[in-house]
Amino acid sequence: MSKFLTVIFSLLMSIVIMGTSPATAENLSHNLLKQPVIEITVSLSNTANELKFEPNYLELIPGKRYNLKLNNPSSQKHYFTAKDFADGIWTQKVEAGKVEIKGNIHELELKPGAEAEWVFVPIKSGKYALRCTIAGHTEAGMKGEIVIK
Questions:
Q1: Which of 63, 74, 76 is nearest to 31 (CA)?
Q2: pLDDT for residue 22 is more than 70
Q3: What value, to the nearest 5°, has the Cα angle with vertex 51 and ends 94 and 49?
Q4: Which of 13, 67, 112, 132 is the Cys-Cys partner for 137 at CB 3.0 to 4.6 Å?
């Protein structure tokens, strides 16, 4: 991880963990990156092209490292959109194919048959809406909730 990302993550962790010195926060960030990831798989629709997330409810713990494995088994594209959730996490990376993306992510588009992995650490507790922003998909049931306890 670049020194810049380490510094940014250390500052975020300092805010989250009250009374923590910057040196302690940097040690925490290195420890987080060493811990194993908790894998969660979410399908955007299914082979019957039903407009839903499977599962449509995720419960996460702040400070834990997750690998959200997304797949789209349907014949149409879908979006995994959860902007407020994305603002409450620290994204380590998103991988899709042979591409690795770092930085702030607010929405992922998965074309038919696509897969992506989003590795992150939840920071801010709350309840966050999840939806597919393609016209009519949210209304047809492609929505969910992500809770960071």
A1: 63
A2: no
A3: 95
A4: 132
Q: How confident is the model at residue 103 (pLDDT cuts 50, 70, 90)?
A: confident
Tell me which H or E stretch contains 121: strand 115-122
**Which residues does 79 contact at the CB level (< 8 Å), separation at least 6?**
44, 107, 108, 109, 110, 131, 132, 133, 134, 137
What is the chain's mean pLDDT, rounded?
A: 85
Q: How confident is the model at residue 26 (pLDDT cuts 50, 70, 90)?
A: low
* Cβ atoms of residues 7 and 22 within 8 Å: no
Tell me the residue type at 14.
Answer: S
How many residues appear in the chain? 149
Nearest to 119 by CA among 140, 131, 105, 130: 105
CA 61 to chain CA centroid, Å, is: 12
Whether the pLDDT of residue 24 is over 80: the answer is: no
Positive or negative, the Cα torsion across 93, 61, 139, 43? positive
Q: Please give the DSSP secondary-structure letter assigned to residue 37.
A: P
**Predicted confidence band of residue 69 (pLDDT cuts 50, 70, 90):** very high
